[in-house]
Amino acid sequence: MKKYLAIMLVAIMALAMFAGCNTGKKNSDAEIAFVTDVGQLMDKSFNQGTWEGCEKYAKDNGKTVAYYQPANGENATDADRFEAMKAAVDKGAKIVVAAGFMQATALTQAAIAYPDVKFVFIDGWPLTNGEDGPVLTNVAPIAYKEEQAGYFAGYAVVMEGYTKLGFCGGGGGDNPACCRYGYGFVQGAEAAAAVKNANVEINYSWQYGQAFSASPELQTMAAGWYSEGTEIIFACGGSMFASITAAASANDAKVVGVDVDQSPESNTVVTSAMKGLSTSVVWAISKFYDNKWDEIGGVATSLGVNDNAVGLPTETWSLQNWSVDDYNALYAQVKDGTVTVDANYPADMSTFAGEHVTVTVK
Predict the structure, then answer these.
(1) Are 99 and 123 within 8 A, CB to CB?
(2) Helical residues (DSSP H) of the chain, grouped into ranges
(3) CATH homologous superfamily of domain 25-144+278-303?
(4) What architecture (CATH level 2) is domain 146-275+323-361?
(5) How confident is the model over 295-334, as pLDDT tens digits?
(6) How far is residue 188's CA from residue 182's CA, in Å, rounded to a whole number?
(7) How high is the pLDDT of residue 226?
(8) What pLDDT shows up at residue 42?
(9) pTM of the shown model
(10) Secondary structure class of 57 (helix, strand, coil)
């Protein structure tokens, strides 16, 4: 009996070890590592979309993968982020994926300290060794044309018939990705309003979004907007989504999701402004394992419509008055340059001079 139990124990341990090759764990030995942005790993948005790309590559290619969340949560410092990267390298990481623009300082330090390790900087830009030093070629910065995704979402909801919109963004107005999303949303709303000869009002705010987290204060603000007539809010900021959807549910109102298709998370979601987080992470990791890192290391990569890396989820949206064919036609116009979307967002959105859209910054 004891011999049988011993054999069974060995078998179970072997299965666990095999499963570990394809299942991501926190702070475990792994050659692919993910360091999260602020917020939770499974935030149904930015962190989750990036992590799913890491997991997919590992599962499809028999690699080990783990994730690291910097200490102190929403109050994480550059030192906390660096320690997370160091821990990943100490546990065998050959390639580290770091999500969010706030990773820049820690990534620079880590890339210099570990020149043989490769780093993928999601929502990033080329980093240098010193202010005027050489570009760090072991860092692959990947950014997205969020303004295009935001444009499609703004255009879609106005064509659907909404005229009182809202935008709640994360990062306090300092996150370039969120700024591009918001500016694109306003531009899309303006373009659709011109087609319909309609007047559109947009409440626009960075309040309560500094940490990209859900909060009672954010939910109260969103509920106030809804009660005052706002019909749909673009929830652009990770876990902030939970507060916006809670307010929408209580007021029979609607939401636009962000980064990934968030319709499975709430029936208040009409559509989502998406970017290809998972697929682009798989692509970047593949460059490393295919010995093609030189194609992306130290190179500014910005993915948009020409890469099929941004857009709306046509299979799950609940739009009734704007068709998939119409969307595809608009997508093609942005792709061929007939329609251009400006990425250079103003510091103050109240200065937006639209003929059909009025932006009120809260």
Answers:
(1) yes
(2) 2-20, 46-61, 78-90, 104-113, 146-160, 176-196, 216-227, 240-250, 277-289, 324-336
(3) Response regulator (3.40.50.2300)
(4) 3-Layer(aba) Sandwich (3.40)
(5) 999 999 999 999 999 999 999 999 999 999 999 999 999 9
(6) 10
(7) 98
(8) 87
(9) 0.88
(10) helix
